[in-house]
Amino acid sequence: MKLLFIGDIVGKPGREIVTALVPQIRAERGIDFVIANGENAAAGAGITGSICKTLLEAGVDVITLGDHVWDQKGFEHEIATFDRVCRPANLPVSNPGRDHVIVEKNGFRLLVCTVLGRSFMGAKADCPFLGADALLKKLAGQFDGALVEIHAEATSEKQALGWHLDGRVTAVLGTHTHVATADASLLRQQTAFLCDVGMTGPHESVLGREIEPVVGRFLDGRPRRFEVATGDVRLSAALVEFTPTGRAERIEWLSLKQG
Ligand SMILES: [Fe+2]
Ligand SMILES: [Fe+2]
Questions:
Q1: I want to staple 66 with a disulfide (CB 3.0 to 4.6 A). Which of 39, 164, 171, 195 is the partner?
Q2: Does the pTM exceed 0.90?
């Protein structure tokens, strides 16, 4: 079986390449599950209910989020209306929204969840290691394989979580930095791992934003509006092939352009 995990969708360029390419990739590569991180889908910050709907209709099975989960006003009231959208699992329990999603295809139940890292991250979050452990324990018997997304800044924290969950989940895949890493691999006990999948959006940019204001900010320290950039739009994703028992057999990093 195959899952495709799409990294942070940034703004309209990111949404457009997802809606354009997902049906095609699905058909050409025989993908069973498509999961996408949508934390930057609305103008680069957060997501809205209507964007969730658009992405789900385009063939995304599950939308995950990150530290920008609540950036769009009102989404805290909308999130509960979606059964295939989940917020980070290790946010304080009082946060609205689901902490995981289980989707079923061809008799296989895939658990999807995200944990936030705590090194160099601003969000208030519980321990991602213990959070993932608790969720896997609570849902034992209800899933055949799991994709745990580690939304974090530090590669060390991401690698450590990969090893911590090795053999217990199908894949541990990283997001948040918007820059892909070249370490796609199978860990000792057949868990697929990648520190960061990279972003889906304009790559002629600084992390998806217009170059000049960001450079200007670094030069003089004055605040500016960072608009979403437009050039060199690419979809970044990890494709994981796994057995019917949920063990990863292969991981490949993809960077795709339209047309
Ligand atoms: Fe992001
Ligand atoms: Fe993030």
A1: 39
A2: yes
